[in-house]
Amino acid sequence: MQDALAWLAQIAALIRKEFRDLFKDPSSRALLLVPAILQSLLFGYGATYDLTHVPYAVLDQSRGAASTRLLASLDGGGVFTRVATLDNARQIAAVIDSGDALLALAIPADFEARLATGRDAPLQVILDGRNSATAAAAAAQIAAVVGAVNVARGHAPLVTIDRRAWFNPNLESRWNLMPPLIAALSMIQTLLLSALSVAREREQGTFDQLLVTPLTPLQILIGKALPTMTVGILQSTLIFLIILFWFGIPMVGSVWLLYLGLASFTLASVGIGLSISAVALTMQQAMLYTFLIVMPLMLLSGLLTPIRNMPQVLQWLTYANPLRFGVDLVRRVYLEGAGLAEVGADFVPLLCVAALTLPLAAWLFRHRLS
Amino acid sequence: MSAVGFITRLRALTRKESRQLLRDRSNLLVGLLLPVVLILLFGYGLSFDVKDARIAVVMQNNSQAAREAAMGLTGSSYLSPVWMHDMREAEAAMIAGDIDATLRVPHDFLRQLALGEAHVQLILNGVDSTTASAIEGYVNGALAVPFAKRLQRMGGKSAESGSVVIVQRSWFNEPGESTWFLVPGLVVLILTLIGAFLTSLLVAREWERGTLEAIFVTPVRPLELVLAKLAPYMVIGAIDLGMCLLAARWLFEVPMRGSLPIIIAVSLLYLLVSLSLGLLISALARNQFAASQIALLVSFMPALMLSGFVFDLRNVPVVIRAISQLLPATHFMGLIKTLFMAGDYWPDILRSSAILSIYAAVLITFTCRALRKTMD
Amino acid sequence: MTGATVVAEGLQRSFEAPGGGSLRAIDTLSLTVRPGELTALVGPDGAGKTTLLRMIAGLLTPGGGRLEVLGTDVTRDPQRVQDRISYMPQRFGLYEDLSVQENLDLYADLHRVPQDERGPRFTRLLKMTDMARFTARPAGKLSGGMKQKLGLACTLVRAPELLLLDEPSVGVDPLSRRDLWAIVQQLVEDDGLSVIVSTAYMDEAARCAQVHVMNHGRILASGTPKALCARVQGLTFAAVPPAGVHPRVLQARMLAAPEVIVDATPHGGAVHYVRQPQADAARLAEALDGAASAPRGEGLEDAFMLLLRQHDNGTHHALPEPDERTPASAVAPDNPNVSPIISVRNLVRRFGDFTAVASTSFEVLPGEIFGLLGPNGAGKTTTFRMLCGLLPATEGQLEVAGRDLRTARARARARIGYVAQKFSLYGNLSVRENLEFFGGAYGLRGRALRTQVRAALERFDLDPTARSGELPAGYKQRLAMATGLLHAPQILFLDEPTSGIDPLARRAFWRTITGLAGAGVTIIVTTHFMEEAEYCDRIAIQDAGEMLVIGTPQQVRDKAGADRGTDMNAAFIGIVEQARATREAAV
């Protein structure tokens, strides 16, 4: 009992030292919190696939009642803004090239006449395809408006699809993108901090001093991992609160499960970070190795694009990526309200990564020759 | 100061920086390997295009018309329908993540159809909203075909007038491939990355290791220090640019409609801006951890998120758009996409090059000032 | 005076103190440096030597006063000065990933040394620094002392009009120090070079034409070494301790009487001391405790100590009280029945094909002060790291307190204390936080920890709130010692604990060590101050990984030959050179 207490007290001393080192001066405190806040705001506002504003140009050669009605319903929708009214087809290139208009509508001279005689009237839509996602979204919006116009003209479709989206009723991309940031954004710093923690001590010569104390590698490991995990979870909490209260995305799952998931995820991240740290000779190397792996981890996490759109080989690779499971776990608990039974499988790879990297890091403390 | 002295010292310092760059493998891994990984991931790994989305079909009405309608799904190359017996089974599969959407054809489908308008229900998993939206579009399209046929067979309703038909053309990216806009954006990302990850550590490292004090008390001028630090990384950046262009041309077959010399020239100009920004951050932060954090925050992340790389700037609030206009990456992003897909559009080339040149001049001036030879 | 190299008048410079307020580093200082001469700046830590040199180099702007260097107002046009001078900072920042040759080339290019001058100059510099064999080695792989020498070589790639050296010989071994000074002196004589050097070695200051003694940002005294020595004329004596009494014990006793004794150091079996000019004869006799004493010639260090004691009244540099703890195993070192606490047999350590330590054997008895001496790169630090379990041995056996610390359970390490080179501390943390952490790591907690920390703060006269990264070298060393001793180790490893430390702090340090040894703590220490070998019970001299000699200071001096006299420095150089000659002859 007394021994166990003494053992814990030694770790506590190390943890206290690490916290003091991290939070000592205001500038380093700011560096731990400001990036998380700024980045979640940036992502929240900047990361959206939802097209809310489509500037367009129109070349109306018909100038009839039908084309006027069509344009009126476009302008009245709130999404389309007319930025130019053109006189001839040659002007289209200029407005599209300059990016002033995302699309141009060309209404042919016989538009009115064809409709009146019961024939189909073509409406030309020229899209700026430089961002193909935006172009596709704009095309869908145009189609919706035109469809409505046709319905108004008495062309009710035979079958109507009633859409119901689970978990995200309006299919807002922010709902899809933001909750995973609770895991993703804090991972960058967790990795960097843990990667630097041993590398910095090596560079400054204090690591030798640490190794001659009676601290065991296990104690050093715990003492190094816990403070970094705390910082990571603290950042996650900040981002979580911003998403929940600032952006108002409702959380349906259990907070308890969310944090259990975050803890396992952060543990795996710290394991990777400490392994980098133990391998790196200098702080510079620790940082660069971290950057080197952070980018692929992010891209192969399903954060931006779905995993199943990837080639099979890459899909296999993602099993080694803790962020993939962190993202999945957070997304499903947050939005779907998934329970332990549904996301339990996500814990397995996370804990496997931790179980591999943490002992490796501990072993390297003593066996990495400088 | 004599020109000869300037050249001699610049050469010596450049040689030193190049050696330091080459000696540490981690520099090369980030400078050369990471771009290759990114090129491959962006080219092959990332796709917004949904293929074979699994959709459960629950037929609560088994009429000929209903089956005909559902058969439309089989024809779509984007959807792979799975027939299920009841909604409970479908919902369970959706929660487990085995399927992405459920199409329910209700009991009274035939009766509704007879009345003129039938409803089917499409349930989507909104967690992945992008995929969900895409599936909705595909289902719409897939169902439209059989019903249009049916409508024709029925002789149509009394059509007093024709309907508006959209004839759509997409300029610049005719096939609508996401690689076409991801790969030019990747050029921006990679050139930004070298500045944010590599040069942002350079001066901070020298402050930390105390190597500047002795260098200061030599005939060296601050501008020489700055230029010597930029030179080797310009080479690395140029190699990366070359790899990007080759991959774009031969691997991903992205069109390059602008002229190659202009693409290269403006890319190198942007590279200079990116490297100088990293260097300035490094000179001001004086410590590697802070420098890399700041570089990540003001250089790399915004270039990824706010430059119009993936997320269109048209969709963001005015404040964010204003911030994005402050970023050199935004100006280069617009330009490089135009150069790749549209061609040499001179007003854009001139305006963006002017803005980037001003950035380069200002950043280098400030870096020189930050490297004023003093320990104060 | 016209044509002066440096003229400073009423020079001032303050820094922001950590806790707000300002700290006067240079306080209305006036000074003139004549051209073509060696000028020394000496003074304790924090006297303002580095600040003054940085101002002369144009790296710091004076807060007030006038400073002219080579006829140029350095504040107005620092670049003009920097084009003409060479400066070696205290911590010379070598590019560690560049090789020795590449570092030299870089500085030669920056100073635009013509190609035809480089050959002979590089040859001479490499020979002087004994680095001709290592030109291809990355600077980061050199030992601490070799880095310092390379820094000097980089500074000397050209003959400037003024050379500024900030403590150039910190951590440099006696042989290299001798060579280093030879080349500086040659530059002065041949090229008429002006040199300003700050140093903690008084024997170096004694070679200079002018010496300025600084304290608290002011000049305390200036003059030729001879003129300064005259101040202690008739006050210097040598006392011979009674048989069986180690000189350090007598010396410690004498230092305890500051009202009669200015300074005392063990030297060649005797104790050299300086008495107070107005010392009371009876008190003096009491302090000497019957030891016979005879007058001796005065040295610059004697004068320096007198000047500082008079200026500070001994308040600022209060000597830490010796440790009065009585350990469990207080054993006299000369007892033949005692078994060694450290034993090393045929220890070998190789890095690739480089042998850092070759077949080394020695034993250390409990309560002994054992000195490990040797030139830079001799393998001392490698030996230390193996003993502390930081590095596995390639071959051989080693036991510390009966165990190999590499494989022993973690608790075994609680019996040793380790003070690494450069006093590795957490620079971000305060003094108290450092102490609390290391105390905690050694298993102290609660009241025991608080008591130990409070005792350490008092004993080493440390300000608990000071940020340890900003402490002057002397205080860093005290803190490093304090952290190494918190858990009352049986064995203390000290790697160059006195490097970069002024003479006052070194006295304080050795007094602590004497006290610890008296209490039975075993001490293994490395040093480049050969006079410090006199404090040791036994010393070993290592070179190129080989053990050259082992024995008491007297035995080592005897082995070097009587013609070397009582000077340990000369004895050391003699033994190492002799061994090197034998080795070369054998090849």
From TrEMBL, chain A:
Protein location: Cell inner membrane; Cell membrane
Domain of life the protein comes from: Bacteria
Coiled coil: none
All copies of domain ABC transmembrane type-2, residue ranges: 139-368
Transmembrane segments: 177-199, 220-249, 255-281, 288-307, 347-365
Keywords assigned: Cell membrane, Membrane, Transmembrane, Transmembrane helix, Transport
InterPro entries: ABC-2_transporter_component (IPR051449), ABC2_TM (IPR013525), ABC2_TM_bact-type (IPR047817), ABC_2_transport (IPR000412)
One Pfam family hit: ABC2_membrane_3
Membrane association type: Multi-pass membrane protein
Family: Belongs to the ABC-2 integral membrane protein family.
Protein name listed in UniProt: Transport permease protein
Organism: Salipiger mangrovisoli
From TrEMBL, chain B:
Domain ABC transmembrane type-2 per the UniProt entry, residue ranges: 148-374
Major subcellular site: membrane
InterPro entries named in the record: ABC-2_transporter_component, ABC2_TM, ABC2_TM_bact-type
Membrane topology: Multi-pass membrane protein
UniProt xrefs under PROSITE patterns: ABC_TM2
Localization annotation: Cell membrane
Stretches that traverse the bilayer: 28-46, 179-203, 230-248, 260-284, 290-311, 349-371
Keywords, in A-Z order: Cell membrane, Membrane, Transmembrane, Transmembrane helix, Transport
Name of the protein this chain belongs to: ABC transporter permease
Organism: Salipiger mangrovisoli
From TrEMBL, chain C:
Chain ranges of the ABC transporter domain: 6-241, 342-569
GO molecular function terms attached to this record: ATP binding
SUPFAM superfamilies: P-loop containing nucleoside triphosphate hydrolases
Domain of life, source organism: Bacteria
Keywords assigned: ATP-binding, Nucleotide-binding
Biased composition (Basic and acidic residues): 314-326
Keyword set includes Nucleotide-binding: yes
Keyword Nucleotide-binding among UniProt keywords: yes
Region (Disordered): 314-334
SMART domains, per database record: AAA
Name of the featured protein: ABC transporter ATP-binding protein
Organism: Salipiger mangrovisoli
Phylogenetic placement of the source organism: Bacteria, Pseudomonadati, Pseudomonadota, Alphaproteobacteria, Rhodobacterales
